Amino acid sequence: MLTSLTSKLQFVYKVSEKVLGNNLKSNIKKSIILKSCNRNSNIINPFVNFRYYTTTTTISKENKYESIDILSNREIPQSISYFTGKPTYNDLIIQLDDLIFKYRKTPKLKDKNVLPTLWILKQRLDEKLGLCLKTHQYRTIIQKLNQLNIIIPEIAPQLHNFLDLFRRYDLEKEKKLLEAMKTVDQFGRAFTLGKRKEAVAQVWVVEGDGHVIVNGKPMAEYFSLMKDRESILYPFQVTDLLGKYNVWTKVKGGGTTGQADAIAHGITKALIIHDSDLKPILRAANLVTRDTRVVERKKPGLAKARKRYTWVKR
Amino acid sequence: MSSLLSANLHLGHSTSLWNPKTSPFIFGIRYGINIINLDYTLIYLRRACKVMKEISYNGGIILFINTRGGLFSRSVIKAAKRCNQYQLTTRWLPGTITNSQQTLGHLIPKNENDVISKTFKPDLLVLLNPLENEIALEEARYGNIPTIGIVDTDFDPSKVTWPIPANDDSVRGIELLAGILSLAARDGLVQRKLMLDKIQKERKQARVIYGHTI
What we know:
Chain B: One of its GO terms (cellular component) is mitochondrial small ribosomal subunit. The complex is a heterodimer. Chain A is an alpha+beta fold. Helices cover 44% and strands 9% of the residues of chain A. Chain A is extended, with a radius of gyration of 38 Å. The relative contact order of chain A is 0.07. Chain B is of the alpha/beta class. Chain B has a single domain (1-109, 117-211), classed as Glucose-6-phosphate isomerase like protein, domain 1 (Rossmann fold). Helices cover 42% and strands 14% of the residues of chain B. Chain B is built from six helices and seven strands. Chain B has helices at residues 2-5, 38-57, 71-82, 100-104, 134-142, 171-210, and strands at residues 26-30, 33-36, 62-65, 86-88, 124-127, 147-151, 162-165. In chain B, the strands form two sheets. A five-stranded parallel sheet of chain B has the order 4-3-5-6-7. A two-stranded antiparallel ribbon of chain B has the order 1-2. The N and C termini of chain B lie far apart (48 Å).
């Protein structure tokens, strides 16, 4: 075995000097070398490390084809970013960067027209790609998707088809809901939700005489305080539409004033659906914003949210 | 050829924080910078191209590395795609060669009977910023893997088997060099394909004539 190996090495040394040059001698000694057959005279580069090599000493016709089969069927990694350790992630980034570069000169939507898109959640993306993404990796992906999303869809439909893979699956449902919320239905009703301080009111507003029904009862019966009744009718007062709309509501949660304010909030939203020009008037009257004031929590070391225990000198 | 190479930002680098081992490549000093002699870059580039060609002809795995990020990574990825080879523009994982089971073993899942998972090692490393990748060079030394590197005036050229003295800071320069090397590799690929087709034809003819089942 040994003698045959040395003979092989000698042969290759001689030929390599002619072809490759003097600098390689030191490197040849380190590497494993396979002698190629006589006929083809293809000298296999000494830098290619073979794990599989024929152990026979003589080279027959069969071995000739075997060695060349090894060359041609050598296994190589599939992904271009195999050596990064995260091939699928890096390949995706490469793909997105290529698209950004490709569409860098196409016209893009201006900021006002772009709807904020809902992108796929990190968990779902992990499942899809079969990875465990870190937050910064997820964020870079989303950044690039946002860059691509700004491009006008009419010009690049293929791109947006590709981007649809990354949108949140219930985006369409949400869009439909939003659209439904914004229009008056077949009976002329506008349906909205109004909220205030744990009270939730489902409000239907139709053109009519000015009746208000709350949980099946007329407003006067349900709300005994004048203040509550006034707050419900306040949106109509502000917009001069007092006797023009009927209101039918279902209220749940909270207390009396909270429920009244919730209904008022719902009514303002419904009026905006009926006529969007009323919005600035209602906004000036501070009716459009949902009042976010809630009961503050109790803190340790204090009797209540703010009340301190009596101070004792000793 | 040399006129194309020069002009475009292949001129010198690094004020006198130089490595004296690069003195043969230096033309002189100007503005406190060592200017690289571009005749030598040409010579060494040609050598490196030959190596690339030969390795890709024999079906080797070539890894283009540049860890600077940004525009550098674009040129590296382009170069790698051009010749169907591999790229690394993020951090070099220490142990990809010497500890490949741990670093890369999880990528290809094991079959039932296997003890070790299948991993690949590159047959050539092309480092476009060796100054920041000394770990990669060490590993290549341990793994008997040759390296081509763009050696600047503040880097020791003997650490790399095939140095190319040039400026490693300019994007255009690196794009150019990576492009040239990848074209050489692509040439090798093309020739390999021709060679394999030729052999297949010979085999077919042999079968026809002699009726052997090979």
